């Protein structure tokens, strides 16, 4: 165990790569989710079909298969990616497909009267989305997005199979050099667990912010002393 | 390099053999996940607070760590304790254990949905605990969550390629082996991707039928 703990810089470097993959992957996933999720709520049947195809295709394949395809198959037809880029692309496109379904569902879940009101107020389509529909939809999206973020972080462990030096690959190296299999894997399991818990706290914070923004929960300044006491007791 | 249909046809049997292993591992793992998830869900309802909390954190831990790491852990750590299992069995156990964390949450939601009156009636009738679960609560709880549970079968199917990392000869593993031998990766990888999409899309159609049957009651 001490051998493993004393080589913590190696593991920390791996953890940093895992965190980077999570950040870049989730940024790409977020963009894809909004683009294709909003397309799926469009009026044009062509656009909706495009959204459907993206979602069905990328939700249907496994991340690892996608990653192998980018990494091993596409270079043979001339598209060569750096491993890191292939990994982020596979993670982001895959999770983005799930995210697009979340976005579509959330926008659809905003009460119809809200949409009708924006039309009655003569808002432009962009204004309707930005001012009325999205702020309410985002509050609905946050909890499932939180789950997807953790899925993405966990999914990033498979990049070790295309030789990216993330936490998982560092653990493999450490296992080979120290031979203490059980200890190494226990340590990195705990590290993954900690990263996941931190991500979860971050999403909870965003959820609270979104609720305050929509006036569904009193802000810090608006809270009466009684509320604060109740909050502390909880 | 362009697509070679002849080569694609010649490797198809190998890949389909891999697909059989993939499906096998998924179904067996699913059975483990369904059983173990139910155990977790019932234990969380245990009258003892300690048992409930311990199970809650164990499930949380399993759910927020990567399947790949868990598979490696089982693959390398179990033999160290003297328990030697084949790669496929380890893979099935790993998949099942990982997804039991998800199914337990599904069961939990289903159990929480059973009206309190049902519990009270069971108490009033003085039913033994076992019959309360097996005869009253679970039949109602499980029926409601069947579509959600089926969702995880598809999710597991898509996670099964990870088994290649612990040398289970599943589909992606066969594709890689074929590619490494012939130095042609385009056809095997693309076929595997397409097969995955086909199976997933087919199973989501089946899933919609399930939802239609059990969803609205």
Describe the structure concisely for a colleague.
The complex is a heterodimer of chains A (234) and B (217). By secondary structure, chain A is an all-alpha fold.
Could you list some keywords that capture this structure?
heterodimer; A: 234 residues; mainly alpha; MetI-like fold; 10 helices; 79% helix; flat; disordered C terminus; B: 217 residues; 0% strand; elongated
| Class of secondary structure makeup of chain B | mainly alpha
- Rounded average pLDDT of chain B: 87
Low-confidence stretches of chain B: none
What's the SSE pattern of chain B? HHHHHHHH
| Overall geometry of chain B | elongated
- Structural class designation of chain A: mainly alpha
Shape of chain A: flat
Classified by CATH, the class of chain B is Mainly Alpha
- Give the % helix of chain B: over 70%
What does this entry look like structurally?
The complex is a heterodimer of chains A (234) and B (217). Chain A starts with a helix and ends with a helix. The C terminus of chain A is likely disordered. The longest helix of chain A is centred in the C-terminal third of the chain and has 33 residues. Chain A is mostly helical. Chain A has a single domain, classed as MetI-like fold, CATH 1.10.3720.10. Helices cover 82% and strands 0% of the residues of chain B. The model of chain B has no long low-confidence stretch (mean pLDDT 87). With 217 residues, chain B is mainly alpha-helical. Chain B is built from eight helices and no strands. Chain B has one domain: MetI-like (MetI-like fold), CATH 1.10.3720.10. In chain B, α1 packs across α4. At the A-B interface, α3, α4, α7, α8 and α9 of A face α3, α7 and α8 of B.
């Amino acid at each position: 165990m001490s051998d493993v703990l004393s080589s913590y810089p190696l593991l920390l470097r791996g953890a940093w790569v895992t965190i980077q993959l999570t950040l870049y992957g989730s940024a790409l996933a977020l963009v894809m989710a909004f683009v294709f999720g909003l397309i799926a709520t469009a009026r044009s049947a062509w656009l909706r079909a495009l959204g459907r195809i993206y979602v069905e295709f990328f939700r249907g394949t496994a991340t690892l298969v996608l990653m192998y395809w980018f990494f091993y198959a596409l270079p043979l037809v001339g598209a060569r990616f750096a491993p890191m880029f292939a990994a982020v692309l596979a993670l982001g496109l895959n999770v983005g497909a799930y995210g697009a379904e979340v976005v579509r569902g959330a926008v659809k879940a905003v009460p119809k009267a809200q949409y009708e009101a924006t039309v009655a107020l003569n808002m432009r389509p962009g204004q309707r989305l930005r001012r009325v529909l999205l702020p309410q939809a985002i509050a609905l999206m946050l909890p499932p997005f939180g789950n997807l973020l953790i899925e993405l972080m966990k999914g990033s462990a498979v990049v070790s199979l295309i030789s990216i030096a993330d936490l998982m690959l560092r653990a493999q190296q450490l296992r080979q050099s120290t031979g203490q299999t059980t200890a190494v894997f226990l340590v990195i399991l705990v590290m993954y667990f900690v990263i996941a818990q931190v991500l979860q706290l971050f999403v909870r914070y965003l959820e609270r912010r979104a609720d305050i923004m929509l006036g569904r929960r009193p802000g810090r300044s608006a809270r009466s002393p009684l509320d604060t006491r109740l909050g502390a007791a909880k | 390099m362009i697509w070679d249909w002849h080569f694609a046809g010649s490797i198809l049997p190998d890949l389909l053999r891999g697909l059989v292993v993939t499906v096998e591992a998924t179904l067996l793992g699913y059975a483990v996940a369904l059983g173990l998830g139910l155990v977790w869900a019932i234990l969380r309802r245990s009258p003892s607070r300690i048992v409930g909390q311990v199970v809650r954190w164990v499930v949380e831990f399993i759910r927020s760590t990567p399947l790949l790491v868990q598979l490696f852990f089982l693959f390398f750590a179990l033999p160290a304790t003297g328990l030697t299992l084949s790669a496929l069995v380890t893979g099935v156990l790993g998949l099942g254990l990982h997804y039991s964390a998800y199914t337990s949450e599904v069961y939990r939601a289903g159990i929480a949905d059973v009206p309190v009156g049902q519990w009270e009636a069971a108490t009033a009738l003085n039913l033994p605990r076992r019959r309360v679960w097996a005869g009253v609560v679970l039949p109602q709880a499980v029926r409601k969550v069947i579509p959600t549970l089926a969702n995880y079968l598809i999710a597991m199917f898509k996670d099964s390629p990870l088994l290649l990392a612990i040398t289970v000869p599943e589909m992606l593993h066969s594709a890689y082996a074929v590619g490494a031998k012939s130095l042609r990766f385009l056809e095997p990888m693309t076929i595997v991707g397409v097969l995955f999409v086909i199976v997933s899309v087919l199973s989501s159609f089946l899933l919609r039928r399930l939802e239609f049957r059990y969803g609205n009651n």
